[in-house]
Write a structure and sequence with these properties.
heterodimer, A: globular, B: 4-stranded antiparallel sheet, 12 strands
């Protein structure tokens, strides 16, 4: 089945450690996104990529890094510089080129807890 | 700057009652509007979207939404709520980039509780 897979579903990290969240899609979508969700805050955009080997900062990029070496994959690294990393992280993808009548498809999320 | 406002943080309705969730947006160009639903600990599922044409949009699970440009609103409605509709609902506006849909801007969400 086509879709977006995020792993792991739950992740625990000690303070001061970097951690990488995985996002893979087999929808052949060009664009991929990372959002952070906190209670009452909605979804806030961390990074997005419209094409392989290119990505842009979103609204809350500080303390995060990404790479886009393959079309199917858009891993997010939460670095030790992120002051408050405990949150629910959502990955999404969409068709990038030539159409406005599209939508973003979301993965099931990764809940990161710093212990 | 683009923004989306969902004025109601939490709404409680009885099963079988009608529902309206409010959404107002601020966007300088033609808005591309979406409603998503999220169950606890899950990702987001698209309910419906508006790009152009008929301002009344039908979606899945019996939901509909009406785009009112004069009021900058895109309210979500359902005539009769089911207990399984209890979830969090997000309104979003998409940024148009020429012929491509760019990033989405989300509201803070409305939590729906359904009483039996």
């Amino acid at each position: 089945d086509g879709g977006i897979t995020q792993s792991p579903k739950y992740l625990f990290r000690k303070e001061g450690q970097n951690v990488t969240l995985s996002c893979e899609q087999n929808l052949n979508h060009d664009a991929m996104y990372w959002y952070r969700q906190d209670p009452g805050q909605g979804l806030r955009l961390i990074y997005y990529s419209q094409i392989v080997n290119d990505f842009q900062k979103g609204d809350i990029a500080e303390g995060y890094s990404v790479s886009r070496e393959k079309k199917e994959s858009f891993p997010l690294t939460v670095t030790s510089a992120q002051k408050n990393p405990t949150a629910f992280y959502l990955c999404a993808s969409s068709i990038a080129g030539g159409t406005l009548n599209t939508e973003a498809f979301f993965g099931q999320g990764t809940r990161l807890t710093v212990v | 700057a683009q923004s989306v406002t969902q004025p109601d943080i939490h709404i409680t309705v009885s099963e079988g009652a009608s529902l309206e969730l409010r959404c107002n947006y601020s966007y300088g160009a033609t808005p591309y509007l979406f409603w998503y639903v999220q169950s606890p600990g899950q990702g987001l599922q698209l309910l419906l979207k508006y790009f152009s044409g008929d301002t009344l949009v039908q979606g899945i699970k019996g939901f509909e939404a009406e785009f009112k440009r004069s009021q900058s609103s895109f309210n979500l409605r359902k005539p009769s709520v089911h207990w399984s509709d209890a979830a969090e609902y997000f309104c979003a506006v998409g940024e148009g980039r020429g012929s491509t849909l760019g990033r989405l801007y989300f509201g803070r969400g409305t939590q729906l509780t359904v009483w039996p």
